[in-house]
Amino acid sequence: MLVKPRTMSGVLELLPKDQAKFDHVRRVIEKHFIRHGFTNIDTPAIELSEVLLSKEGGETAKQVYFVQSTGGLANNASSDLALRFDLTVPLARYVSEHFSELSFPFKRFQVQKVYRGERAQRGRFREFYQCDIDVVGHNVLPIAYDAELPVAIYGIFEELGIGKFTIHINNRKLIRGFLDGLGLPVELQALVLREIDKLAKRGTDYVKGVLASELGLGESVVNQVIGFAQRSSRSYQGANALLDGLEGNAPDLHAGRSELRAVLKAIEKMGVPGEFISLDFSVMRGLDYYTGTVYETFIDAHPALGSICSGGRYDNLAQQYTKEHLPGVGISIGLSRLFWQLRDIGYTCNAHSGARVLIVCLDEQTTDVQLDIAAKLRSRDISTHVFFEGGKLKKQLKYAIDSGAQMVVIAGPDELAAGVVSIRDLKRQSQIAIAPDLAPDAIARALTTSGSLG
């Protein structure tokens, strides 16, 4: 009996043309990570569950996939292995385990799949790629690193051409200091921050209602909190003016303001135009994990997509694994979700799904010429497919078009009898006849310079 081929829900499996676009996006991300001096690491998909779940709990723990062998299942044995659900916990384990062998600050990037038992719904994945960069220090980490990450993100999205986007930046110390000034206890402040983080998704009225009815804040305090969180600016000059206008004497407020000034100044010096940066006091990042600078990135024309890249500063990466003090700052792109969203809004890019050149086979006696041209093209790093299946020229040209090839080389009996091969540019709808030994150079010039064959 045949089994119906199918995939489970919550995975992103792509056909070749979309896979080529996905790979292009991934390559651009990795290129900019490397350009900023980050080192690639690769951690196991399977971790010891005791290590993986040493800190996390609640909803995250409920989404973990545990790993068990068939023998273990048969014996009803419990599993001590689990699939990673993010790249941050494996990083913390990695840095702690190899602490004595690493140099600090340790700048790493990681592009790997993670796994979560998400409820099946549109745009949510059980298996997905994350692209993370983090800078981890030992005891101290200069605030300038908080500026380097959004500069890298700006370079990535600018090259990808996703349209106008904005990196929203804040510092959690600002709101902490403001809430201190209102006399709110630390435990209540954490709950208030989580609700402020919902302003963009749930709206002002919803957040006000929760602050008043569930957290017990008075009307005056609620209005002050919302008024503070709704301040923003989209220029460096405006951001500095906004910071200058803050009132209050709380140490956290002063520290947050000083750090933000330093971060914004460094971002500007590294060449990011002010219209791509927003100082936004509503950005909190819901996790208490973050203690200072926080980031979220949105495509301006598609705010409903939510943040496409987020992260922030944390005080101690691996306190559950080591007594060493390891402050850091990191940012993450959910690549699978991002690509799914971009595809949904019609994103296009110049990506090739297969060979850029197809060499047709019309007569098996001409194979030596075809193989020679293929070898010379491949030596120039030009992906080439020799269509050994043969058949009519029309069939092979259709295959070339469907597979995304740009050039077709025709070396049939008639061409060789005349001492030439034909090169057809499918993109520009042009064709030339040329000596076989000159064909590889002609194709290489046309592909690498985006010029014509003539």
TrEMBL record:
It is found in: Cytoplasm. It holds the Pfam family HGTP_anticodon. Signal peptide: none annotated. Its EC number is 6.1.1.21. Keywords: Aminoacyl-tRNA synthetase, ATP-binding, Cytoplasm, Ligase, Nucleotide-binding, Protein biosynthesis. The keyword Ligase applies. GO terms for biological process: histidyl-tRNA aminoacylation. GO terms for cellular component: cytoplasm. It comes from the Bacteria. It catalyses: tRNA(His) + L-histidine + ATP = L-histidyl-tRNA(His) + AMP + diphosphate + H(+). GO terms for molecular function: ATP binding; histidine-tRNA ligase activity. Residues 25-338 form the Aminoacyl-transfer RNA synthetases class-II family profile domain. InterPro entries: aa-tRNA-synth_II, aa-tRNA-synth_II/BPL/LPL, Anticodon-bd, Anticodon-bd_dom_sf, His-tRNA-ligase, HisRS-like_core, HisRS/HisZ, HisRS_anticodon. It is an enzyme of class 6 (ligase). L-histidine binds at D86, L87, T88, R116, Q130, D134, R285, Y289, Y290. Homodimer. Belongs to the class-II aminoacyl-tRNA synthetase family. This is Histidine--tRNA ligase.
